[in-house]
Amino acid sequence: MSKDSVPKAIAFVALKGGVGKTTSAYNYGEWLVNHSKKVLFIDLDQNCDLSQTLQSYKATNTVRYIFQPEDGHADIINIKPNLDLITGDPDMEDVEYDLALKTNKYMRLYLWFIKNIDSLMKYDYIIMDCHPDFGTITKNAIILSDVLLSPITPQKAAYNKKGILRERISELSQEAIDYKSGDTFVTAKLWFYGNNIAHNTRASRELKAQLENEKDVIGIIPKREIFNTSLTDNIPIAEMEKENSKYSRFKDFFSEMNDFYEKVTTKINSL
């Protein structure tokens, strides 16, 4: 990606928790870093799991100041070479409440991006981890995004959430419009992926069959404990792959994940 190009903005979104959204965001961002890309994480989830994993939970100038710039500024914290973070805030629910009657309440993140575009041009990708809802903060992320990635897991009625999310994004696109041109500010591509898909359960087989021919489904992440625990263990699979013992044991899984991430990245870069 050219250094002179605007970074691609990617939001991981879901309507319910426990589907591996944050784990997916974390591992994809780390995979990009391991492929020499510059990544900015923005933790928009009040659970702050991403920030805790990156050991930056106690930052003072958190993400809330993107939405409340009159009260302060959000710091960009360097985590390691090529990886920065804007730390999450456990009080984002209060921010949502504060924004309820504000003008441009869905445009705060976009306006922050435009204001800071010069300093953000050094990144190849901005990856946002959203709270599992369709609240004001998530809507801000959707408006900024080029791509929305949403996991679907083999749980009861999980497939139905796919249509519900698409419908809500459509409603937002009709609400968030430029009144001069009539164009919508919602231009992101919505892509789904199967997550935590086992090879030996009926629920996983049924979901995989449902997703196979869907044009908006970008791939499958197989069920592996090393992926599911990577967030709590503070080690992404891109780093695990470098360990000889893990590589020899999970070689096929690492190969599947590399193929998945390469496919996602190629599609994102083509936009």
From TrEMBL:
Domain of life: Bacteria
PANTHER family: COBYRINIC ACID AC-DIAMIDE SYNTHASE, P-LOOP CONTAINING NUCLEOSIDE TRIPHOSPHATE HYDROLASE
InterPro entries (alphabetical): AAA_dom, DNA_Partitioning_ATPase, P-loop_NTPase
Residue ranges occupied by any AAA domain in the UniProt entry: 8-172
Record-linked Pfam families: AAA_31
Name of this protein: Peptide transporter
SUPFAM superfamilies named in the record: P-loop containing nucleoside triphosphate hydrolases
